Structure prediction request, 158 residues.
Amino acid sequence: MDDNLDDNREQPIDAIERAMVAIRRSQSRRSLARLAGRPAAGNASFDVLDAIEAAEQSGAPATVSGVAGALGVDQPRASRLVAGAVEAGLVRREADQSDGRRTLLVRTEAGRALTQEVHRFRRSVFAEAMEGWPEADRTEFARLLTRFVGALGSRTSR
Prediction:
């Protein structure tokens, strides 16, 4: 009987794991680019812009090291991704006034505009997926997902 109890406890965790894998796949650059009707190759800059925006929102300086950490890539890969975003005119490098050895990353107007476009697109995809959901369900899902992501982030960032 104890095995049955363990199985019952694991079922929601199994379902969550499957759902998280499905979300990761559906939110890949390639999948989103296909939905938006864009070529996937140039969309690596979206990840860089997301990482820089997150740093800005947290009050932390945006650096190549920070982008590497946020994206879970090594420093050379992050440097190449940032260079691509700079070349595309989405990001610029600025000297850090408080530490001359460090270079800060700042979104350009074009980078900010693309960030907003991407947010609008993602939100439209999410709204479409929840079409027909009662507002109370949307609110509860947002509350629980936000709580889950916060707890997951605190465990995975250790």
Summary: The mean pLDDT is 85.
